[in-house]
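Please predict the structure of the following assembly.
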Amino acid sequence: GAGVSQSPSNKVTEKGKDVELRCDPISGHTALYWYRQSLGQGLEFLIYFQGNSAPDKSGLPSDRFSAERTGGSVSTLTIQRTQQEDSAVYLCASSLNPRGLDNEQFFGPGTRLTVL
Amino acid sequence: KNQVEQSPQSLIILEGKNCTLQCNYTVSPFSNLRWYKQDTGRGPVSLTIMTFSENTKSNGRYTATLDADTKQSSLHITASQLSDSASYICVVSASHSASKLTFGTGTRLQVTL
C-alpha cells in the first residue's frame, strides 16, 4: 500500500498476557518510529529504528516492552505481561530520512490496545 | 529540557469562522517545526513544515507562521469547515537529534454548525 499500515487496528487482552503489534512502513523509508498516545495526552516516543538497528530505545517504559525490525521493513512491538496502564493507542511512523526537511513522519492509523 | 506548549487546549468555533492556534517551544538547536492534523481514530498528518528562515507558509486554508526569535508559531485556519474538526499538533525537530521530535499535546478543535 501507499501508506503506513498497522495491525491489528484494535486489540483487547487480559492483564498478564503478551501482545504483538505490527507495523508496515512506507516502502523505502529507512527510519521507523513507535509512539504511544494515551487518552488526552501527547505522543510519547518509544523507540526509533534506522534500518534494522535501534539507535534510540530510550522511550521504552519498561523491560516488558521490546521491538524489532527485520529486512529494513516490517517492525513488531511486543509487550509482555501486559498491565492496565499499557492501554493506549500505539502509533507507528516512518520517514525517508531521520533528519532535515525529509524527516516528515508518515503515521499509521494506530493500534488501540485495551488491557482488561 | 525541550518542550512544546500549545494553546488553547480546546476550541469550539462556528463553521465559516477563522481561528488561530498557538505553539511555544524551547527546543534547541532548532531544525524545523511542523503542524500535524490528527482526525479522531487516525494517525497525524503533516500540514506544514517551517525552517528557521521561513516566517510564513500556507497550505490551502491553513497558514502557519514562525517567529524563531521568540520561539513561537501559530496556525491560522480560514473559513473553517466541519472537516477541520480534529486535534492540531505542533512538532519541533532539534537538529542534533535524528530520532526525537518534541510533540505538543495538541489543540482539539471542534467546528460546529
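Chain B touches chain A through 22 residues (CB under 8 Å). The CA atoms of residues 35 and 90 of chain B lie 5 Å apart.
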